[in-house]
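Input record (one chain):
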Amino acid sequence: MIALLMTMYGGFLNAKRQMKYRSVLWIFFVNLLLVLGYIISNGGTGNTSLFGGNNWALGFFLMHYWLNMHWTYLGFLNLPLFDDDFTFLLIGMCSSFLFPSIGFLIGKFWYKRLDKRMK
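The corresponding structure, as predicted from the sequence alone:
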């Protein structure tokens, strides 16, 4: 819950400082590149092996895992959705787009309303 609030608050602060919308999307584009690198190096969306196998796919998975470490608690939930490595990567990528965008939109509407009151 704290990670969710922090990412939304980061988008909110970008709106407060009158930054462009794309300023909150940089993390999404980095995640997108890592997921595409994982798919290409793994030859699909299957699981990677920690011991042996494709080192590039494992590297892309671990970089994505490190970058989105604040969402890693989702991997410890015993849900069938998290049985596959790719779904974990996909959830991290979508979270890096969705939550900062929501925070940015809230901040944009909040400060637009505040500016109308000041005038």
